[in-house]
DNA sequence: TGTTAGCACTCTTAATCAACGAGTGCTAAA
DNA sequence: TTTAGCACTCGTTGATTAAGAGTGCTAACA
């Protein structure tokens, strides 16, 4: 229902607004090399596009800016995904290659690079612990009533926590407990630990361990805590450099959200494999109503482990961002797979 | 060299400016209950105080604001440390008491409370790992060439890192290594680990472990990393609510500093036991030139373990902040001591 | 019938100006 | 020594104006 020319003009406007952050006038468009119509013609088309809801006017004598619907249409139909420059690619390669030690570092580094390349804020959800399985449990006594419990997963992730025993527990009891746990729980997904503990382990403890209730409650607490996903940020303050965010109060609100990992995690998370783009109000979250969020998932052995996200103004460099996100989504997965095979 | 009255007036001006963030005029001061001089008299005194460098004028027809020197004098001689309200105390008590599990949580929670009570930004340096001693080392194989090494200190702190062995290492070798390390290194301060490794352990390895060089380089890397202090923040964005920070660019600069823990750590750190107040340029750091930083140390068993800091505008509620910091400095030390004795 | 030149109109932005008021500094009197 | 009085300074506020960018409409053109 949109004519060829309208498509062309809409694209031109969005492109222009994305780079200049200023309402686009008819003359600006008509001056372009690839367009051979007078401003008046463009104006007529713009007027139509506005009527259809793709454009809006900040005020009657400004140019047009894309509406939310305009961005959406642009993203869905108009946008030509930009080829990543070879400089970008080598940049990424070199920066990711050097840090190759721990999965966690790969993720952190990715967040950083992503934010540097875009000057938006990147948010990466770390591998969910509960997707991975228990490799080993260690209990290291610090004092008579205090020990550190360490949980190592098959992906090499380590969680630790201090436990307090209300009454003294003998060294041999601790040893027994560790043995039992390792025997029975190796290979069990982290999120099932607590359940297994109550159902299977409790009775075994009862048989062999003298102060089994003390141990049990202590362990229960520990398993409770480790079900959350980690959140990594890159360029938290990048968003402040966007001209649309010169109001300190607005900025403060957004920055405060970043402090609440649980909330962010919920916002970013996306079940869909592949790329997701949420524009403005599509985020369904008031403080993000003029922000766009592009997310992609990354995998390990084909299974979902986390999400990478990029948060910027609705006026976002979609073509570039999309290419970048696709690249990262693939590259991180590869990297993690390779690390995993080591 | 300052008369009684001048002291009084200087204090009144600083107090007023601290609460209202606006230049203080002579009339405002003379209206105060406790002052019985006409505006003209006050003006004369103000003029003198300005000449001496304690006050300055934003422009000729505004009131006066304290100069850096003014704040300094106020802090050193004028300020009456405010009694903490009993509400504050109970607030703190209740919020610190509930979270009592891990040292790290105590610190984190302290940072949070401190920022909430003041609406400044709190920065707390975590216990320096290298003050504590090695309790136990664990090496947990994940795959043939990959293991997780876990370092537990006597304070219950856990550090972990993944190590890669370039060539396969046998299980018995790993076991030997762990035994040797635990035998020889228990009780050694963390910061000495690397040194000891090269000096003493290397030769032992050579004797008993087949691929000892592989192990050695892997371990060396691990010990390298764990010498930094952790930095905890509370209310990172609180500073944005101060009226003097309505310029996004300024804010961005400060916020960016918070992302670099090493730098912050260096800035906050203070060797002096007790309270330190650095006003504006005394921080010797450009981006902090109109910020004040109040720091105090906290201890464990009488020994320095970390620093708590509060960062706000030079126009800071010094009386309140000082009391709070003193309180926290004591309370955190107590808390940690008690935890340590458990 | 689609395109475009022309022009009146709208609305923002920047600049200028005057009035206001908060505050100072000085002088002279108490 | 203190203070009343007053002229002066300077930032703030609001109004007014001019400039400029852009639109929308009409009428002419191909």
Automatic annotation (TrEMBL), chains A, B:
Residues 1-72 form the Winged helix-turn-helix transcription repressor HrcA DNA-binding domain. GO terms for biological process: negative regulation of DNA-templated transcription. Pfam families: HrcA, WHD_HrcA. Residues 104-322 form the Heat-inducible transcription repressor HrcA C-terminal domain. One of its GO terms (molecular function) is DNA binding. The keyword RNA-binding does not apply. InterPro entries: GAF-like_dom_sf (IPR029016), HrcA (IPR002571), HrcA_C (IPR021153), WH-like_DNA-bd_sf (IPR036388), WH_DNA-bd_sf (IPR036390), WHTH_HrcA_DNA-bd (IPR005104), WHTH_transcript_rep_HrcA_IDD (IPR023120). Keywords: Repressor, Stress response, Transcription, Transcription regulation. Coiled coil: none annotated. HAMAP family: HrcA (MF_00081). Belongs to the HrcA family. Negative regulator of class I heat shock genes (grpE-dnaK-dnaJ and groELS operons). Prevents heat-shock induction of these operons. PANTHER family: HEAT-INDUCIBLE TRANSCRIPTION REPRESSOR HRCA. NCBIfam families: hrcA. This is Heat-inducible transcription repressor HrcA. It comes from Alkalicoccus saliphilus. The lineage of its organism: Bacteria, Bacillati, Bacillota, Bacilli, Bacillales. The gene is hrcA.
